[in-house]
Every structure is written in C-alpha cells, then in structure tokens.
Amino acid sequence: MPNKKKKKKQWVKRRHAVIRNLASFLLSPYIKWKYGIAVERYKGAKRQYLIVANHQTAFDQFFIGMAVKGPIYYVASEDIFTNGLSSKLLKWAVAPIPIKKQATDVQAVLTCKRVVREGGTIALMPEGNRTYSGKTEYFKSAVVGLAKILRLPLAFLRIEGGYGVHPRWSDVVRKGKMRAYISKVMEPEEYLALSDDELYAVMKKELFVDENTTGGEFFHQKSAEYLERAVYYCPDCGFSTFESRNDTIACKKCGKAARYLPDKTFEGIDGEFPFKHMGEWYEAQARFIRSFDPSSATEVPLYEDTVNIFDVFPYKKKVLRAKNAKLALYGNRVVVQTAAGVMEMPFDRVSVATVLGRNKLNIYFEDKVYQFKGEKRFNALKYVNVCYRYKSVTKGEEDGEFLGL
Known about the structure:
The chain is α+β, with helices and mostly antiparallel strands. It has ten helices and 20 strands. Strands 1-7-6-2-5-3-4 form a seven-stranded mixed beta sheet, with helices on both faces.
C-alpha cells in the first residue's frame, strides 16, 4: 500500500487560548501594579489582526494581550528558543513564532501564513529591539511586505511611558505611569491601495513615540544605574567608558558627570552637561559613529572586554564555549582570545551583529552564531554600531544611516 502523507500538526491549538486567558487573569493585576500601566481594551470586532507595536519594555507582549482579545501568536527573537526547559515550556504554552534578528527570515513569513490560515492573530514589534534612546527605533520596511502577504486588518498598538518606567539599559522599574492602546486599525483594502513607501510612512507615523519630549515623572533612587550599557560616546573624549551609580553617570576619562532626573532629563554636576535628555545623547553618539573612519582603528583596539562565550544553536540551545575570554573591538573586526587560542571575526564575514536583552551580543559569523555575555556594565551596543559603520563604508555608503538597531 502507498505510504500515507503524514498530516502536519496544527500550530494553533486550543490550549494556547486557555493558557493565555489564565495568564491574563493571574498576571494582569500584578503587571498593572508593577508598571503603573493603563491598558485600553480594544472594542473592535472580534477577528484576526496583524498587530504591530512599538517596543519599550520587556513586558510589552503582555500589554498587547491585555488590549486585544483572542489567541495571539507573537513573532519573537530566536534567543528565547535556546534556553532549554523554559523554552520548551514556552513553545508548548503559547507557540511564539521564531525569527532571526536583523535578518531576512523566509521561514518566519511562512509560519505567519500558517498561523493565519489556522485562525490566529499575529503580533510583532517591527523595531526588533527595545528602544535605548526613548524614541521608536529604526525598523525595516519588510514589515510592509508581510502585511500585504497576510492581508489581515492592521492594528497599531502604541505603548507610551514605558521608557520612563523601565528603560532598556536599567535593571529597575521606576514608579510612574504608562499607557497602551490601539491607535488605528486599517482594513486590507485600505492599505493594499497604498504603495509600499506610503504604507511604511503610515507605520512609522503610528508607531513613533518620543519619550524624551513627553511629560511625567518616574522615580527610583537608582535611576541612572547601568546607563553605560547604552552610551560609549563622550563629547569631550570621543570613544569612552562610563560608570553609573544611583542617579548619576560620569565619563571615566574626563570626569564629565550628570544626574538623571525623574523627568528623564540630565542635570550637569560641577558644570554644564551638553545633552538635555537621552534622545539627544543617543543621536550625538550615532552622528559620532557615522563620521568614524574604521580604518583608523585596525592596529589598536577601541575597547577590550571580559566575556563568557556561548555557541548558539538557533531554536535549540546555547552551550558555554569559554569563560573569561577577552573580546577586543577594532574598526574592522572583533578578536576573541580564550585559553584555546585566538579567533578573529572580520566584519566582512559577519552577516549580523545584534544586541539581545539589556546587553548580550550575538554575532553571526560565517555559518555559526556566537553569544557574548559580559559583566553587568558591559556595553554590547558599541560592537554592533562599529560593525555596521564598517559595512556602510566598505559598501561606499559613507552616509549610511543604519547602525544595527
């Protein structure tokens, strides 16, 4: 007898909706208290959507689930699938859709189509990264193509106040107010009539939030602690290192220091500070890198850090490769030194470099993926920014805007 074709398992399962409803019931009161968030329940028709949201906190996916009814399947970084038992439980409970950060992932698109066919709603954060600056970060226009492929009602969810409550670079949640709500819904026939550029412009407008220019106060005695995960540029020293303590941060080279105030502004200590808020500092840092000549730093490293190295097996696991390795950043490469020897990673052969979580660095080098975890003050962002600056220069794009995030 001919072999019967094995039936493909459903991605969308009844238990996902049950677990989601139970988690929402149990966790919503805690989340509202912890984050001071007001989530506006969307009262539109109960149907499938493609939900796109800006990304401010580690709990954003819960805010989406609190705002929109029905089973939601989140597009999530592949890193959450490499944590052993906890990853297996997560896949069983809510079946997130894995995607490679900052890379074109055809399989993720196919999985989204499958979920839609099976009746699920898709949710994603096009930035792919929580904002470091308080502003909605760059996101690729590929999300426009996905919307036009899926042809679902397109719902825009805005999260406001999250950067004040829990900035990406911080370990602590501050006392303050947040808000999450659906700002706009576009029907398929509405956005299919737009060009890709027009729809991309709509997405950028609807998802853009600048927390630096909004009101509100956010209180914690350690409000500036670990800001050095996000900044490495000093207006007096150029490339530098910083050290934070409680509500202050200072350049370790020249001593220029500032206090981070509850209204998210900086106040100079023993003199004027050149940046009013984190948005200004982050933009100045980006301008500095966009003017940086990578060929000027090929002999002496810009930075050296001590890290643990993991071999990443995408969607499966991470295996510790070496402890207390030396990681050196040059203008054209990263050099890793362990007890086993030295490995060079020229940026020409790096396909993707990205920051995960607060300060983990993932580098896709040739056919392998490596993760670098430093100590709590480790700044992974500088490695990503320098890598993409090098790529822009070598492509002849001296004015290239994209710096990896």
